[in-house]
């Protein structure tokens, strides 16, 4: 039954997000370096770096708990640049941050389905602008080296990559294999509360193992120590809740950190699976595709797919996460045998005929008819939703036409 009392609603939001950011800790393990230390400077940030991040700061973004808007930082000139540089240098030396930087305001953003359930919302963290500037400095130093080490199969949060790349790759693969009637199994995987359940301790160990300088890891740890937040809803801010897991959606460096974890999960799982993937015309084999936590597995036999699923389930648990089997799906193409029974964490995965992957309808054979029909329906719905605009006499034709072109 929906909660009608405002104060009880606020309490429920705080309770939900506190549970969402608190997952069972993963047992500690020893860490061995698998990569040499990255060739990046560990000197404190200089004025040029801080000035550049201030210039790139978007003026109209929301402020954090301190209510200091980005425009204030952008318009304060060299005076604030010098003050921030001094502050960041102090943080660099002490490897600790002001306690206020660990607080955030969590804004629930509706995803889909029923609006009456908290689980249908994603929490976006509004953080102090100063902490985001420091995170941006760290990200810019590490980005180029990390980009060279990122798996080719990962397209999420990468410059020059996007959803369209993986949609095109998957469609082309299905189309070419269908031409030669090659049996193909595609499994679409969903990690439950992926960003919120990631174990931070294991993440820091992963960064160390991959060669990230310890100075950066220690500062990132400081940004994620004793984190807390308040949920902004109904123009109220309830009491603080504490969080111990996940990366904060809204922090500049969170996508960078999350990709580290996903790459390590998939790499560790699939290196123990032999003869995997679906062979392509070039003689190469495509094993998987990732866009952040959207993982696609490709195989041409049931045994290979089940082995990959088992290894992935083990690997993802190392990071405190788990799959949501009910949201995972199987797509079969040119499959002559009886439908395979594939399981994940003991639950059978549903076989479907089409799947909305990264917003695009994927079907066996790689055809686009269903996708075109889906887009026509969505366009019609968007047009209908603007019906009130078409009926307004005091709105010019230019505005009405402009609205439709933006859709």
Q: What does this 3D model show about the protein?
A:
It comes from Schistosoma haematobium. InterPro entries: DNA/RNA_pol_sf, RT_dom. This is Zinc finger protein aebp2, variant 2. Residues 90-362 form the Reverse transcriptase domain. It contains 14 helices and 15 strands. By secondary structure, the protein is α+β, with helices and mostly antiparallel strands. The longest helix is centred in the middle third of the chain and has 21 residues, at 129-149. Helix content is 43%, strand content 15%. Helix 2 packs across helix 4, helix 2 (47-56) crosses helix 5 and helix 10 (254-270) packs across helix 11 (302-317). A hairpin with a 2-residue loop joins strand 14 (354-357) and strand 15 (360-363). The mean pLDDT is 89. The protein folds into 3 domains: 6-151 and 195-251, no CATH class; 163-191 and 263-366, no CATH class; 375-406, no CATH class. It has a 5-stranded mixed sheet, with helices on both faces. The chain has a 4-stranded mixed sheet with strand order 2-1-4-5. A two-stranded antiparallel ribbon has the order 6-7.
Would you summarize the structure shown here?
The protein has 407 residues and is an alpha+beta fold. 43% of the residues lie in helices and 15% in strands.
């Amino acid at each position: 039954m929906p909660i009608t009392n405002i104060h009880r609603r606020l309490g429920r939001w705080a309770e939900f997000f506190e549970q969402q950011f608190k997952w069972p800790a993963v047992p500690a393990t020893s860490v061995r370096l698998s990569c040499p230390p990255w060739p990046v400077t560990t000197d404190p940030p200089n004025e040029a770096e801080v000035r550049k991040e201030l210039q790139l700061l978007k003026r109209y973004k929301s402020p954090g708990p301190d209510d200091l808007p980005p425009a204030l930082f952008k318009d304060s000139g060299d005076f604030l640049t010098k003050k921030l540089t001094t502050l960041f240098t102090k943080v660099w030396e002490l490897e600790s941050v002001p306690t206020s930087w660990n607080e955030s305001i969590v804004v629930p953003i509706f995803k889909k389905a029923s609006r009456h359930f908290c689980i249908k919302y994603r929490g976006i963290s509004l953080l102090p602008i100063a902490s985001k500037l420091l995170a941006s400095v760290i990200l810019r130093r590490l980005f180029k080296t990390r980009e060279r080490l990122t798996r080719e199969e990962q397209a999420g949060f990468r410059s020059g990559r996007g959803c369209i790349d993986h949609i095109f790759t998957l469609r082309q693969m299905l189309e070419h294999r269908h031409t030669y009637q090659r049996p193909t199994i595609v499994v679409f995987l969903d990690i439950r509360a992926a960003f919120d359940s990631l174990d931070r301790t294991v993440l820091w160990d992963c960064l160390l193992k991959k060669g990230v300088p310890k100075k950066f890891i220690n500062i990132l740890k400081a940004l994620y120590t004793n984190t807390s937040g308040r949920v902004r809803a109904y123009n109220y801010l309830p009491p603080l809740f504490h969080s111990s897991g996940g990366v904060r959606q809204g922090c500049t460096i969170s996508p960078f950190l999350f990709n580290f974890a996903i790459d390590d999960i998939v790499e560790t799982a699939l290196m123990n699976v032999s003869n995997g993937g679906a062979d392509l015309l070039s003689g190469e084999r495509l094993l998987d595709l990732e866009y952040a936590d959207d993982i696609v597995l490709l195989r041409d036999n049931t045994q290979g797919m089940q082995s990959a699923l088992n290894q992935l389930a083990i690997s993802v648990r190392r990071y405190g996460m788990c799959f949501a089997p009910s949201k995972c799906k199987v797509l079969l193409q040119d499959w002559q045998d009886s439908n395979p029974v594939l399981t994940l964490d003991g639950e059978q995965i549903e076989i479907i005929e089409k799947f909305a992957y990264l917003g695009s309808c994927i079907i066996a054979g790689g055809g686009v008819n269903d996708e075109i029909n889906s887009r026509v329906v969505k366009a019609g719905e968007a047009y209908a939703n603007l019906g009130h605009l078409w009926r307004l006499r005091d709105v010019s034709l230019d505005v009405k036409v402009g609205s439709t072109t933006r859709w």
